[in-house]
Amino acid sequence: MKEYKTKARDCILDYFKNHCDERVTAAEVYQFLKDNGNNVNLATIYRNLDKMSEKGELLKSKNVSDGCAFYSYTEKGDSCCKHLHLQCKICGHVIHLEEDLMNILYSYVSDKMGFSLDCKESVLMGVCSNCKAEAEIEGIYACHNELEHKAGICTCDHHASHS
């Protein structure tokens, strides 16, 4: 199917190139474009974000607490499908794993388990160093669930007494 180059797509791509270290929602893209005089329908933004995610131009991830979709730009294009990503459960920051580590992982999984990895939509969840450091400053030390509890995404009942 032929892909058309549209002004809306160009505006969205420019937005992500200028916010390449951020993770944003479709609503944030819409608001930015609207505030800057680009009258783009929200449905058009979603359609373009989905296409750009499928092509590997954007990484699509979901917020653990509410399932909200977030998008982040990847200059690597299709190569983003060849490695895993780490996503912080607290702030949503996405980290791309380095090629050297992925080569070791691919070899191990292939040689030891006879398994072929498909990393296109693979995200390992955890807590980033910034959120851990912030939690330590605030006196939360026990475990990652304490951090999740503070962020309102913990599903463990044993933290209710800490509220």
UniProtKB/TrEMBL annotation:
GO MF term list: DNA-binding transcription factor activity; transcription cis-regulatory region binding; zinc ion binding
Keywords, comma-separated and alphabetical: DNA-binding, Metal-binding, Repressor, Transcription, Transcription regulation, Zinc
Pfam families hit by this protein: FUR (PF01475)
UniProt xrefs under SUPFAM superfamilies: Winged helix' DNA-binding domain (SSF46785)
Coiled-coil residue spans: none
Names of the cofactor(s): Zn(2+)
Binding site for Zn(2+): C88, C91, C128, C131
GO biological processes: negative regulation of DNA-templated transcription; regulation of secondary metabolite biosynthetic process
InterPro entries: FUR, Fur_C, WH-like_DNA-bd_sf, WH_DNA-bd_sf
Keyword Lipid biosynthesis tagged: no
Co-factor binding details: Binds 1 zinc ion per subunit.
Record family assignment: Belongs to the Fur family.
Record protein name field: Fur family transcriptional regulator, ferric uptake regulator
Organism name: Lachnospira multipara
